TrEMBL record:
Record: residues binding ATP: G155, G157, K158, T159
Region (Domain IV, binds dsDNA): 333-452
UniProt organism field: Oceanicola granulosus (strain ATCC BAA-861 / DSM 15982 / KCTC 12143 / HTCC2516)
Recorded name of the encoding gene: dnaA
Coiled-coil region list: none
Record-linked SUPFAM superfamilies: P-loop containing nucleoside triphosphate hydrolases, TrpR-like
Name listed for the protein in its UniProt record: Chromosomal replication initiator protein DnaA
């Protein structure tokens, strides 16, 4: 025989032992129901809580009960609803919404854009690796890349690839619960759960998925409690062998104000970079978009040379490229003309002017030598001291990233060096920026000033 008061005392002792937040999350919701044949039964809002308590706190609770003179061998949990709640049910929110939402499938995650599929994703050198990794994750099997971390600049296709993974899974493995959402939606749900005191539901919701995809994770950097919760969610899922896919605008180690333990966890799977588009990829994307449009508007005629012109002149960002085409299509159908070079130049004058601003290797070399306070001639010249060699490799890396110049062309601008030297320099910096935060910060800073 055990009284409610004795149980409350045990709970209060647990409060002291586990701390306030764990107490609120896990112990407070336990409502004593019966003690029979050495089995203490409590009701809980969700079975998840029961399982969690069993795994993490059962021994401690049994020990405290023994100290209070109660012989308990094990704990058992039943899920309560409003009608069956025990006499001292706390102000716990009903569990129904989370339980019902638990098996929600892809459709109940954030809205997925229909057209963001693998079929509509054009693959080229700059995004081949990211595409292959995304495909592999969508296929499933043993979780080889966990997490898959996709990063790259604006409009390079991160969201498209994430939606493509989700679409693919929905089609081929409908039994999986796939949750896709942006990091700000994660934060919004977290803050709402806190405010409405529904943290249990929140935790249950996120820990019950098979695949978690969080887009633009840089958004939670600097938001302390959201980061913390994200970290726990991440660990719980990863430990349970669930697939996680994350995207951001830069590499894990380069996300400002993101705690180290989180960035190193994010970097613990496969980290893949979507590089700025090159001419071939831009042309391929343009051709594919025109084909898609023409399948519905066969009257559209695009003169020879227009797509090549656009692929040459418009920036890396695929969003800008798409926007240009959409404007051209609208304009052409309005005036009932074919899209030729003249119409293109008229219609896109502002976009073309804006993308005229190209970063040059000269500019990069100047900025880098200023930043490291060395002479331009030393940056380009033959001296091999580390204090020159490292900035030189950084300038090579930036030239590769921010211009469309080939390795031999870059080599020529660095005192006539061979393209293999440039390749070595670029690789070295690629390695260092993963491990050396000073270098990765320098790169980010230089990139920003150059892109202004
Ligand atoms: N390789 C590609 N093939 C076809 N379309 C692409 C490709 N890359 C990007 N796009 C298109 O470009 C647009 C921008 O892509 P997306 O939103 O995925 O970029 P993002 O990397 O998530 O950008 P941001 O960081 O700004 O959110 C989308 O309409 C997408 O369909």
């Amino acid at each position: 025989m055990m009284t409610q008061d004795e149980w409350i005392n045990v709970k209060q002792e647990m409060r002291g032992a586990v701390g306030e937040s764990k107490f609120t999350n896990w112990i407070e919701p336990l409502v004593f129901e019966t003690l029979r044949d050495g089995v203490l039964t409590c009701s809980v809002p969700t079975l998840f809580i029961g399982n969690y308590v069993n795994q993490n706190y059962a021994d401690q609770i049994v020990y405290l009960l023994a100290r209070a003179g109660q012989e308990v061998e094990r704990l058992s949990f039943v899920v309560r609803n409003d009608e069956t709640a025990g006499p001292q049910q706390q102000k716990q929110q009903p569990a129904a919404p989370a339980a019902a939402g638990a098996r929600r499938g892809v459709a109940e995650s954030a809205r997925l854009e229909e057209r963001y599929t693998f079929d509509t994703f054009v693959v080229g050198k700059p995004n081949a690796l990211a595409h292959a990794a995304a495909r592999r994750v969508a296929e499933g099997g043993p979780v080889a890349y966990n997490p898959l971390f996709l990063y790259g600049g604006n409009g390079l296709g991160k969201t498209h690839l994430m939606h493509a993974i989700a679409h693919d899974m929905r089609q081929n493995r409908p039994e999986l619960d796939v949750l896709y959402l942006s990091a700000d939606q994660f934060m919004y749900r977290f803050v709402t759960a806190l405010r409405e005191r529904k943290m249990m539901d929140f935790k249950h919701f996120f820990r019950s998925v098979d695949v978690l995809m969080v887009d633009d994770v840089q958004f939670i950097a600097g938001k302390d409690s959201t980061q913390e919760e994200f970290f726990h969610t991440f660990n719980a899922l990863a430990d349970a062998g669930k697939q996680i896919v994350i995207s951001a605008d830069c590499a894990p180690g380069e996300i400002r104000d993101l705690e180290n333990r989180i960035s190193s966890r994010l970097a613990s799977g496969l980290v893949v970079d979507l590089h700025p588009t090159d001419y071939e990829l831009r042309l391929g994307i343009l051709q594919s978009k025109v084909e898609q449009y023409r399948s519905q508007h066969p009257e559209l005629v695009v003169a020879d040379g227009v797509l090549e012109f656009l692929a040459h002149r418009i920036s890396n960002n695929v969003r800008v490229l798409e926007g240009s085409l959409t404007r051209l299509f609208a304009f052409a159908s309005l005036v009932g003309k074919e899209i030729n070079l003249e119409l293109t130049q008229d219609c896109l004058a502002d976009i073309l002017r804006a993308s005229d601003r190209k970063i040059t290797i000269d500019e990069i070399q100047r900025k880098v030598s200023e930043h490291y306070n060395i002479r331009l001639s030393d940056l380009i010249g033959p001296r091999r001291m580390r204090s020159y060699a490292r900035p030189r490799q950084i300038a090579m890396w930036l030239s590769k990233q921010l211009t469309n110049r080939s390795l031999p062309e870059i080599g020529k601008r660095f005192g006539g060096r061979d393209h293999t030297t440039i390749m070595h320099g670029v690789r070295k910096i690629d390695e260092l920026r993963q491990t050396d935060s000073a270098i990765s910060e320098d790169l980010e800073m230089l990139r920003r000033t150059l892109e202004q």
